[in-house]
């Protein structure tokens, strides 16, 4: 993406790091390549290009004088409180929908069937986000921020409504993807608003809180999903709840959010002309093709099926096309290409992308499969299964927030990533071995906490390190790479883990239940969740055999946690042993 149009996402970095990463008086996006400051139109006032934004100054990491001279924030009082409230609620909703599907999968499959499409319930949301995130970043960097934000909110609500009213699995999946696209808009919108509206001395705190509220949403997501699944409202209200919350904050979006024009000196034609439409399309298409190919292959279609082979081939061709189009700047320019390719030549940036993707992968595998484990092994209802996940999620979020402060003290980032990789690898390996019906609940808690410390250490610090490792003009580009690594990593994690689980469970259950006259469809339905009618009909030795078979298949998915940790260890070992500041 062009450096003059970046959206930003320095989530959960402490204020000391966030401020150091920014040019004095600049937002967490790359500085627009025009001399005119962003225009903020306030209700009842004339548009003034100087109000609401800090004047750009030369980059500095420790200029206390520049910070002291920065103008006061132009929006204060009740209006500022309402703006903050609405933006943090948006971040909360984005986090909520990131994990809410973890505990509604069983009831959904029980209603609709099609257990082979189970990975799509979780993967559809991050797929929508990662496929659209580059486009959303361009929109925020080129057009009225208020309109882009509200557009994202509307799409998020439409997707949520479709999920809640879905008549079948396909409609639910489409709704999840739409909600993911809109979710990227409201999440990036909040970060962009705080980047433009706050002054340097307070910016780190406000942006850090975006990450905090995302984390809170992610913590309660499985709980909310499980609670609705067990209630008379049913799982559908796990998605309808977004409409209720959205209706409450909509008036704030409409009447209190200011209109911010990032490029007031450009005409609409000039803004549109700078878009790398081909690059944006190819990048989004690559993510969609990957997800479809590796979700359908081996589940609905055999790997040898012509459709599976065709999709994989097309995915490879499109991926190559993305690389060539970006490298040779076909129908675009170096300044405006969708992917900041020059940063991919940086050893530090590439290793940070790998580390962030590995961290989010290990997080999502645990978040999605540990509740399923407890539902089968302990016969837990969805809410109780989600409660058992809390030690992992809470430790991960707390460690995540603390990691920024640790980094500001240690100043060397490679050892932090190395420690994270070691904890994830060891915790994941032991967890996979002990993921057995006979293992005590306390042991599972303890092992997931080890992984939680590992994921928490590295989940967000990549944003801070990435921004401190580039020139000010590339801050937005570096953050966008981290966005893609984090959201894309969660998509890959859910698709691959789901593929492994579905493939293995079909084999292990067929062996465990062989000779009892069950159809292939009945056997497949047992893996849909502990609440499935067929699984509940099993008793005695058959039930025990089915649980053992399902848990054995689940163990294979945790290979992804081990491999992610090991890759992070290698990446950390290859990082420069250097001080950040």
UniProtKB/TrEMBL annotation:
Provide ranges: composition bias, Polar residues. Answer: 55-65
Q: Which GO terms describe its molecular function?
A: transmembrane transporter activity
* Domain of life of the source: Eukaryota
- All residue ranges annotated as the Major facilitator superfamily (MFS) profile domain in the record: 83-581
Q: What is its main location?
A: membrane
> Listed GO cellular component terms?
plasma membrane
Q: Where is this region: Disordered?
A: 20-66
Q: Does the keyword Transmembrane apply?
A: yes
Bias (Basic and acidic residues) ranges: 42-54
Q: According to its record, how does it sit in the membrane?
A: Multi-pass membrane protein
Q: Where in the cell is it found?
A: Membrane
List keywords of the entry alphabetically.
Membrane, Transmembrane, Transmembrane helix, Transport
Asked if the keyword S-adenosyl-L-methionine belongs to this entry, the reply reads no
Q: Which InterPro entries match?
A: MFS (IPR011701), MFS_dom (IPR020846), MFS_trans_sf (IPR036259)
Regions of biased composition (Low complexity) lie at: 26-40
- What stretches pass through the bilayer? 80-100, 120-140, 147-167, 173-194, 206-225, 237-256, 277-303, 309-330, 350-370, 382-401, 413-435, 447-471, 558-577
**Its family?**
Belongs to the major facilitator superfamily. TCR/Tet family.
Name the chain's protein.
Major facilitator superfamily domain-containing protein
């Amino acid at each position: 993406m062009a450096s003059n149009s970046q959206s930003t996402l320095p989530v959960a970095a402490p204020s000391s790091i966030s401020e150091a990463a920014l040019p004095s008086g600049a937002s967490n996006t790359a500085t627009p390549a025009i001399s005119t400051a962003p225009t903020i139109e306030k209700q009842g006032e004339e548009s003034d290009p100087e109000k609401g934004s800090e004047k750009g100054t030369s980059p500095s990491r420790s200029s206390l004088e520049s910070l002291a001279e920065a103008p006061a924030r132009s929006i204060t009082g009740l209006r500022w409180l309402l703006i903050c409230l609405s933006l943090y609620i948006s971040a909360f909703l984005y986090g909520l929908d990131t994990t809410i599907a973890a505990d509604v999968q069983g009831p959904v499959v029980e209603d609709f069937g099609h257990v082979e499409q189970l990975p799509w319930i979780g993967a559809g949301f991050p797929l929508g986000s990662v496929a659209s995130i580059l486009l959303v970043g361009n929109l925020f960097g080129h057009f009225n921020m208020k309109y882009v934000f509200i557009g994202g909110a509307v799409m998020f609500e439409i997707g949520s409504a479709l999920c809640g009213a879905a008549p079948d699995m396909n409609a639910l999946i489409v709704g999840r993807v739409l909600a993911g696209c809109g979710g990227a808009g409201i999440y990036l919108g909040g970060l962009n608003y705080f980047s433009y509206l706050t002054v340097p001395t307070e910016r780190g705190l406000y942006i850090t809180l975006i990450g905090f509220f995302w984390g809170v949403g992610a913590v309660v997501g499985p709980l909310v999903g499980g609670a609705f699944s067990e209630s008379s409202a049913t799982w559908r209200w796990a998605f309808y709840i977004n409409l209720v919350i959205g209706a409450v904050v909509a008036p704030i979006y409409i009447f209190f959010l200011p209109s911010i024009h990032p490029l007031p000196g450009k005409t609409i034609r000039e803004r549109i002309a700078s878009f790398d439409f081909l690059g944006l399309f190819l990048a989004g298409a690559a993510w969609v093709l990957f997800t479809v190919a590796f979700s359908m292959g081996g589940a609905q279609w055999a790997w040898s099926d012509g459709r599976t082979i065709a999709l994989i081939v097309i995915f490879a061709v499109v991926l190559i096309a993305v690389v060539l189009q970006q490298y040779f700047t076909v129908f675009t320019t170096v300044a405006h290409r969708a992917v900041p390719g020059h940063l991919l030549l940086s050893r530090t940036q590439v290793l940070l992308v790998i580390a962030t993707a590995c961290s989010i992968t290990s997080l999502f595998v645990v978040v999605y499969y540990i509740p399923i484990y407890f539902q089968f092994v302990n016969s837990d209802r969805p809410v109780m299964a989600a409660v058992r996940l809390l030690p992992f999620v809470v430790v991960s979020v707390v460690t995540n927030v603390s990691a920024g402060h640790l980094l500001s003290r240690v100043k060397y980032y490679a050892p932090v990533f190395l420690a994270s990789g070691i904890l994830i690898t060891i915790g994941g390996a032991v967890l996979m071995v002990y993921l057995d019906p006979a293992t005590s609940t306390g042991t599972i808690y303890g092992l997931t906490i080890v992984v939680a410390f590992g994921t928490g250490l590295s989940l967000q610090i990549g944003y801070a390190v990435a921004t401190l490792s580039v020139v000010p003009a590339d801050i937005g580009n570096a953050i966008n790479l981290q966005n893609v690594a984090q959201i894309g990593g969660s998509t890959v994690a859910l698709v691959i883990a789901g593929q492994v689980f579905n493939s293995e469970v079909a084999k292990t259950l067929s062996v465990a239940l062989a000779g009892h006259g069950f159809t292939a469809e009945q056997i497949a339905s047992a893996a849909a969740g502990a609440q499935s009618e067929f699984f509940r009909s099993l008793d005695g030795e058959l039930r025990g055999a089915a649980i053992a078979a399902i848990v054995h298949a689940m163990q294979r998915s945790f290979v992804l946690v081990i491999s992610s940790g090991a890759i992070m260890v290698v990446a950390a070992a290859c990082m420069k042993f250097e001080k950040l500041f």
